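A student in our group prepared the protein record below, which I am reviewing. What it holds is a sequence and that sequence's fold in token form. My question to you is simply how this chain folds and whether the tokens agree. Do not assume that whoever made the record got everything right. I have pasted the whole thing underneath without changing anything:
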Amino acid sequence: MDARVYRDGLLADTVPFWMRHSVDREHGGFLTFLDRDGSVYGTDKPVWLQGRIVWMFSRLYSEVDKRAEWLDLARHGADFLERHCFDRDGRMFFVTTRDGTPLRKRRYVFSEVFAVMGFAELARATGEDRYRAKAAEVFDTLMRHHTTPGLLEPKELPGARPSKSHTMAMILIPTCQIARRVDDRPIYNQTIDQSLSDIFTCFCKPELRALVERVGSNGELIPDCPEGRVILPGHAIESAWFIMEEGRIRGDRELSLKAIPILEWSLERGWDDEFGGLLYYTDLEGKPCVQYEWDMKLWWPHTEALIATLMAYQITGDRKWLDWHEKIHSYTYSHFPDPEFGEWFGYLHRDGTVSHHLKGNLWKGPYHLSRMQMMCWKMMEGTRSVSP
């Protein structure tokens, strides 16, 4: 495996594609509804992708090359977030129109999560305290809503079947890892510690070799409904490498090693032996998945698996993880990259044929792809700094 595949993919393909096609010079921010050739097919702006793109350009500036154009674009995105994406209660919208008029707000705090990442990474790139302070302010808002019953509309009627999701425990780890690089507030380490505890004590089921997405309020399985049996291999694999990275940052090898089984279970359950690639959803008991897209192959679980397997190999020295990395790389790079127009297709049918030719939408931007390319490049060269 050659680090140049990741480096050149990042610098000669992914980043130029988004710089050419997504920057909105007229209204600010970034356009993400991009067709195969980069042409814009929709002008609404997903707020969480604005934060992700601010993170990308800031991280490129800090860790790849101090190009003024990258820093300018990070500021460009942060300015749009500050001017248009906050409601009066401090929470953020989920989608705006092209000119920044709010369209939709969700009962989730993912816009806030990625705004924290973006502002914190921009604080690191610029050294400006106002971005650090903004990241801290948004983090406090998201945590208040996440931890205070009733502030966010519940997914289900209260009391009927109390449950909690793996998603927030997972995503708060990298959020705090990024914020912690520019801010020594204890809340970031405390939140990571709580997330680690939740993942290992509630969502990991070693006896079943699985990490499940939703459990009862005390971590108990909910096996009599499909939602309680959902396994999302991509999320579990992300959790695994976030934990491995936290162990590396802390100098705690045992913590990193505790994450390896999560990766192993997820590849066992998620890998499609018939067609190759990772299934999007699986069921804990092998029963039917209710998600229509359960057997599709999406770009982002594969990027996370490339990071996780390479990280596992570097931690353990076990050749099987390098073999897994090469296996996933072979499938991923033979199916997702677009040789004609660049960047990656995001959505494949189970047999690996392309389902949608789009390069961006409400969910897909450059974040997962650029992060994988940066991290795999740096890991292979041995020049990676801490934090995702």
In short: The first strand starts at residue 33 and ends at 34. The chain has a mean pLDDT of 96. The two ends are 22 Å apart (CA to CA). Residues 1-153 form a domain with the Glycosyltransferase fold (CATH 1.50.10.10).
